[in-house]
Amino acid sequence: MVMQNKNYIGIDFGGTNIKIGCFSANLKLLWKTSIPTNAQMGPDAVIDRIADVIKEMASKKNTPLETIKAVGIGTPGPAKYSDGVLIRCANLPKFINVPISRMLWEKLGKPVILENDANTACFGEFVAGAGKNIKNMVFFTLGTGIGAGIISDGKLLQGSSGNAAELGHMIVNVNGRLCACGQKGCVEVYASASNTAKRATEAIAAGAGSNLKAVLEKNGQITCKDVYDHLAEGDKLAKKITDETAEVLGVLCVNALHCTEPEKIVFAGGMIGAGKPLLDRIKYYFKQHVWKLKQEDDIEICFATLGEDAGIIGAAALAKDL
Amino acid sequence: MVMQNKNYIGIDFGGTNIKIGCFSANLKLLWKTSIPTNAQMGPDAVIDRIADVIKEMASKKNTPLETIKAVGIGTPGPAKYSDGVLIRCANLPKFINVPISRMLWEKLGKPVILENDANTACFGEFVAGAGKNIKNMVFFTLGTGIGAGIISDGKLLQGSSGNAAELGHMIVNVNGRLCACGQKGCVEVYASASNTAKRATEAIAAGAGSNLKAVLEKNGQITCKDVYDHLAEGDKLAKKITDETAEVLGVLCVNALHCTEPEKIVFAGGMIGAGKPLLDRIKYYFKQHVWKLKQEDDIEICFATLGEDAGIIGAAALAKDL
C-alpha cells in the first residue's frame, strides 16, 4: 500500500463523461475510472458524485485518501480559473458561477486546482507526451470546438485571468463565416471536427456531387469521420473539404508560430484519427502560408501521443506543481 | 560624479538613426544622444562608432565607463537573439550574421544583451510607461511595418529562439493581400502606416474621388499622415481607408486577446499621431469583432506614453535584468 501523502488526482470534466485518474509523484497511473457527467443533476449532485467516486476508488485501489496530496481538474471554460470558479459552459447549462474548487475541497479536504480542459491536456502532453524535453509548445485539440494550450518557457501560459490560449478563436478571415462564439471568421468555424462535417453537408445541399450524399440521406447527418473515410476512398468533395480544413489549420500554425514561437505544434482530439493524410496537408499548407523572411524548418508539427488520458495526466501534474 | 558600477546603456538601433541612452539603476535618464546609422559603412565601422560615442558621452557626461554595468541593444530582426547575432534585416543590407553582442562587448568590455527592437520598446513601456503596474500586456508599434512585443506574467515572452511576438504577421485573411514578408493577408499588409498610405494611393489610382488625389499629384506620394490629416477634414476616402486600418487593428486586438489574454494592449509608433479618432475606431472594431461568450470589458486598449525613448529605456531595463 502506498501510504505516503504523495499521490495526485487528475479529473477531466467533460459535458458527457468525467474521467478521474490517480497518479504517483512521478505521474505513473495508479488507477483511473470514468463516470457519465449527468450534468442535468446540477453542480451539487455532480460534485458529490465525483467526491464519492474518488473516495470509493481510493479505498478499493489501495491509495487511501490520506495518500492524496492534491487534486487537479480540467473543465471547459470560460472560468475564473485563479479563483476556481466555473463561469459558464455551453455543454453544462446548470453550471453557472460554480465555485468548483472550493466545493471539491470541502468534500475531500485537499487543495484543488482548476484549469481549462485544453490546458490540462496540453500540460499532460508537455510533461509526458509529444512535448517531452522541449520548453515551448502549442497544443490544439480538434473536436466539436478547437481548444488550445500554450507552453512558454516550460510553463503553461495563463493570461491575466487564466483565459489565454483561446487560439481556436483567432480570426483568420475578417467578416468571414459566423462562429457559435459570436465572432466571424474564427479558425474554429472552419476547421473543428463539427464544422468540417457541417461544410460538407452545406456543399451537398448546394449541389456538390459526392458519395457523402448517400451517407447524409441514410444517417440524416455527415460526421467528420465520414469526410475522412471518403477522403481515403478518393471522393472529390471529401478532398476539397479536407483541404480547406487543413489550409485553415496550416494558417493557424503560422499564427501560433508568430505568437509564441513554439518548437512543436501538437494536434490532438478526435479529428487526428484522420491520420497522416490530414497531418501531411496541415504541414503542406503551413509551408505554403508561412513567411519567407526566415527559414522556419525547425518547427515540428505533429500529433499528440497520450490519447484520452492527456487530460487526467495534465490535471494531476498541475496538482503536483501546486 | 556617479561612480558606482550601476548605470546601464540602452541602444535603439534603427535603419536611419541609432539612439543611445544612459540610465541609472532606477532607470532615470542620465543622458541620451542620436547618430545617423550610416548602415552602408558596414557592421565593423558602425559598431566602432557606437562604442566611440558611448565612450565619449560617458566621459563628457560624468558617467565614466567604469560606472556602466551592462548594455542592452534593440535591433530589427530576425536574429538569433540568445546568441546576440543579427541574422538579417531589410533596412541594413550589409548586416548579415553579425555577432553584434560580441563585437560591442569586445569594444566596451561590458555584457551586452540583444533583443528585438519592438521587444525593447515593449519592455520600456512595461517598466516605465503605459504598462506600469500590470503583468500581462501586448504592445504594437505601427510604422513602416508592425512590430510587437508580449509581456506574459511580468516577463518578455521570447519563444524558442527569441522570435516570438511577430503578431503583425498574423494572417487575418487567408490568401489575402501579399505582404513584403512573403505571406498573404497579414495584419501588416493592411494596417501598417506604409500600407495604409499605399491602400489610399491604390484607391485613387482605381478612380476613388478624394482631396488626397491633389496631394498625390503634388508630392508624388501619399503618406499615412496625409490620410489622417484628410480624415480630420472629413474626406470620405480617408475615412474609408482609416476604417479599414482600424478594423484590421481591432481584429488584431481580438487575436492578441485570444493568445495571451493581456490586461492592456498598447499601440505605439508614428501612426498613433492620428490620435483619438484612430484609437476610438480600433476600440469600436474590437467590440464589433470580439466574441460574446464572455464579457471582455476588462481589457484596455490605449496608446503608449514614452514616445521615442521607449526603446532605449527598455534596452537599458533588459540590461539591468541581465
Provide an overview of this structure:
The structure is a homodimer of 322-residue chains. With 322 residues, chain A is α/β, with parallel strands linked by helices. Chain A contains 10 helices and 12 strands. Chain A has helices at 43-60, 100-108, 117-128, 188-191, 193-205, 212-219, 224-232, 236-260, 276-289, 310-320; strands spanning 7-13, 17-23, 29-36, 68-75, 79-80, 85-86, 112-116, 137-142, 146-152, 155-156, 264-268, 300-303. A 5-stranded mixed beta sheet of chain A has the order 3-2-1-4-7. A 5-stranded mixed beta sheet of chain A has the order 10-9-8-11-12, sandwiched between helices. In chain A, helix 5 runs antiparallel to helix 8. The longest helix of chain A has 25 residues, at 236-260. Chain A starts with 6 loop residues before the first strand and ends with a helix. The model of chain A has no long low-confidence stretch (mean pLDDT 95). Chains A and B meet through helix 8 of A and helix 8 of B.
Mean pLDDT of chain A: 95
- Rg of chain A over CA atoms, rounded to whole Å, is 20 Å
Total beta strands of chain A: 12
Q: What is the helix content of chain A? A: 25-40%
Instruction: Indicate the multimeric state.
Output: homodimer
Number of helices of chain A: 10
Largest sheet of chain A: 5 strands, mixed
| Shape call of chain A | globular
